[in-house]
Design brief:
The chain is mainly alpha-helical and 95 residues long. The chain has helices at residues 13-23, 28-41, 47-56, 61-69, 81-88.
């Protein structure tokens, strides 16, 4: 997979921005993890979850990747239910 498979058509501006930012992280592994998650979930995220996602994507790629893949520590403000959903997400599976 080389990029988003989801059209941004029908999404509000906030969701469009998040879809783009999750696919353009700078570290390919993070593009795939966050990008695939938002491809499937962006339309159903609540405002609170969007807030959590906006906060989470500010974490530097190496730190976020380590937390998602190796269980490295992550500051408590980022350890949300959304973080847990992303960590357990597998493309093609219903959430």
């Amino acid at each position: 997979m080389t990029g988003s498979t989801r059209s941004s058509r029908g999404l509000d501006d906030r969701r469009k921005r998040l879809l783009y930012r999750c696919w353009h992280r700078g570290m390919r592994e993070m593009d795939l993890i966050l990008g695939q998650f938002v491809d499937e979930e962006i339309g159903s995220l609540t405002d609170a979850e969007l807030n959590d996602l906006e906060s989470l994507i500010e974490v530097p790629d190496p730190d976020l990747y380590a937390a998602l893949s190796d269980g490295a520590p992550l500051a408590s403000e980022y350890r949300t239910a959304l973080f847990d959903r992303i960590k357990s997400f597998r493309p093609g599976q219903a959430a």
